[in-house]
Amino acid sequence: MIKEQFNALSALSELFVSNKWVELENGTLSLIDKANENKIIGLYGFVMHITTTYLGLIALKKNEIELAKEHLINSLLVPTSPYLKSAGPNMLVAKKLLALGETAVVSDYIILCAANWGIPLRIFYIGNWKRALKKGNTPDLKHYTDIQIKQLH
Fold this sequence. Notes:
By secondary structure, this protein is mainly alpha-helical.
């Protein structure tokens, strides 16, 4: 089941890179259903974070900004996961919302990151990002915007 869910995430990332938005939405919703049927301890939170991030990207593509903001916050209202704690939350939707001037929701998201991230990275990045937002600057989120998931063999 673990390999199957990682490979499903990998397939979604290929659809995202290929700009196949309808297939991405259908595949994302399907994986959410499968993950909810088989809540694999340690993996479930990561799968839900990534799939909800894809839903946020899909909402942005449809210019549904309020829905994208909901998905951004919901992507961290998931059970903790060792994968999420080590890799960190994905910042792609946050970065795109910042570009649209949506700093309040991104600030809230950054605060939520603390619960889903390991201590060293959490202390370093979150503090810097919060300070940048307070100063009216755009935090450097580039290291955490890759949403590509590699297949497990």
